[in-house]
Write a structure and sequence with these properties.
The chain has 346 residues and is mostly beta strands. The chain has two helices and 26 strands. It has helices at residues 49-52, 234-237; strands spanning 3-8, 11-17, 19-24, 34-35, 43-44, 63-64, 69-71, 76-82, 84-85, 100-103, 107-114, 132-133, 138-140, 145-151, 153-154, 169-171, 177-183, 185-186, 193-205, 215-229, 244-251, 261-267, 276-285, 293-305, 322-328, 341-345. Strands 1, 2, 3, 18, 19, 20, 23, 24, 25 and 26 form a ten-stranded mixed beta sheet that branches.
């Protein structure tokens, strides 16, 4: 059974059994994927649907406080970042990344991102026809694969025939282009150890006649997920190989019968390096309710291989030991303040 250590600035927050999941459907900004409460847990992709259900739509001549959220007719959620009274007529909502809109004279709305079926609903994340998709949007196709929007635009009226191969590209008749990131893969059968670490680095500033730093400027923030695996599964290996691709169905007639079909791992040839959303869960026992658990969950919203040697080993044993790590990357098409990584306690 795998184990995981959660740490923040090298301080251990939790240690326990690990249930890692690779390539989950990335949730909208400011939200997190949650598990369904089963042991071992499985990950569901939380939508904004229940979160914004009570928020409603925009209303004219209404006082909005900072933090208020509304949903526009395009399926986007907006949060009030400057309090004020809305105008007499509804503003023209845009889907521009990092967008802000002034409503009336003082109210300012900042784009949060997709809601409901426009982005993901439950664990389905279905594609929606005639919808304005943004670059970096993700949906889950009927085959269970996560599709990543490379070229944005308004989707066609009818769903495309989704390419089923990992890293293959689907182009809609309207021009919207998707990259197949493959299915969500559970790493629950691994036997290695994981570490989820979040940290920041700062530079202290002080005046000449003072011996204590007065201001600390955060110069960088980072988050990593890594561990040692005891499972030689190409579907899992692929997430630790930059530009990696798996190809099945290779045959070699010169090999003995029963050994002629094999799987290959290749690199290169992709339009863009895939960035997967990953999460690792660990049960947190409840002393007040013996036998019940809540969970620590650490998520990298957009991650790729940490670089260097991933330590893939091929031996004559039943399985090989290998190491891999991933680093969180910024999501440049989301609003300022979007979390690249998150650590939650349920």
């Amino acid at each position: 059974m795998s184990s995981v250590k959660f740490s923040v600035n090298e301080v251990t927050v939790h240690k326990g059994t690990a249930y890692p999941f690779f390539n989950i459907l990335r949730p909208p900004p400011f939200l997190m994927p949650v598990n369904d409460g089963n042991i071992p847990p499985t990950v569901s992709d939380r939508s904004l649907g229940t979160w914004v259900a009570a928020k409603g739509t925009w209303v004219a001549s209404t006082a909005y406080a900072v933090g208020a959220v509304i949903v526009d007719q395009n399926g986007n959620a907006w949060i009030c970042t400057t309090a004020g009274t809305s105008g007499a007529t509804e503003p023209v909502w845009t889907s521009q990344a990092l967008g802000t809109i002034t409503d009336g004279t003082t109210t300012v709305w900042t784009l949060l991102g997709r809601v409901g079926t426009a982005h993901c609903t439950g664990s389905s994340g279905n594609w929606v026809g005639s919808f304005a998709y943004l670059q970096d949007d993700q949906i889950r196709d009927p085959n269970g694969n996560v599709q990543w929007c490379l070229i944005p635009g308004t989707s066609a009226a009818l769903a495309p025939t989704w390419k089923t191969g990992q890293n293959q590209i689907t182009v809609e008749t309207s021009g919207v282009t998707w990259l197949n990131l493959g299915p969500t893969v559970s790493g629950g059968a691994t036997e290695g150890n994981f570490e989820f670490d979040m940290e920041f680095k700062g530079t202290a500033f002080k005046p000449d006649q003072d011996t204590l730093p007065l201001v600390t400027l955060m110069t960088s923030e980072s988050a990593t997920l890594g561990g040692e695996f005891a499972q030689l599964d190409p579907a899992l290996l692929i997430f630790g190989v930059p530009h990696g691709q798996t190809v099945t169905g290779f045959t070699d007639g010169a090999l003995p019968a029963g050994t002629q079909t094999f799987t290959g791992i290749t690199t290169g040839g992709l339009v863009q390096i895939p960035h997967y959303c990953m999460t690792v869960l660990s049960p947190r026992p409840l002393f007040a309710q013996p036998g019940s658990s809540r969970f620590y969950s650490g998520t990298l919203a957009k991650a790729c291989s940490g670089g260097g040697k991933s330590g893939l080993g091929f031996t004559l044993n039943k399985f090989s030991m290998w190491k891999a790590s991933w680093q969180a990357h910024g999501v440049d098409t989301w609003p300022v303040g979007t979390r690249g990584a998150s650590l939650y306690m349920q």
